[in-house]
Amino acid sequence: MKLRYLLWLLLIPVAFGQYVSAGYNKGSVGAGISVVQGCGKNTSTSTASPSWSASCSQNLASGNTLIVVAAAGSGGTTTISDSLGNVTAAACTFNNGLTLNIYYCSFSITTGGSDTITLNGSFSTFWMTFSLECHNCAGFDAAGTAVNNGASTTWTLPGVTTTHASDLVIGFGGNGSANDTFTAGSGYTIPSGSCGANTAGACGQASGGAQCGFVEYQVVTTATTYTPAATVSGSISGSSQTISFHP
Fold it and tell me: The domain containing residue 233 runs over which residues?
């Protein structure tokens, strides 16, 4: 009997080690930052106060974060709202001194469900807007300095220096005079698929009405400086930005 008892004691740590190594350590489940979905749309308008409204293909999940980025015509001001009332605590940054205005906002999804996001501008022009629903995005980390990209088939976006190891790095930009398409740089992903919020293109890029734009992302594992790139189907100019969020 004593021998059986001793053997049982010896086997417990072995069995527990196999249990944990097989992926059953619940403390590590869901710890990583990730993109749940992306959606985007371009709008060409000549009205005095253009408005952009779109809903993502899937319902938003409570507890996640919605990140909204846009490249729009120069000048004017922009406001953002959503139909579920999540955007009341939004943190928005507007860079209006470039060829195109560069905007980015983020807000916690306190109320999940079918949501419509609306941007209103005080200028008479176009814009390309995209959003990413992020899981385990605890907060904004850093931003590069938004830049104008000269006419080229290769765009180098601003560098962003992260302060956390496992960040979500996001690059985006647009052009207001061409219907070209973008290909993500090495290690980055442009959301694909049929996006219910998009009138032209995939969920992560839009092209049409003499304008085009894109958003790309990468989950990184080291705190350092990241400089995304993208290739373009034609030699065009535009404006771009890089931002990051930490888990």
Answer: 32-246
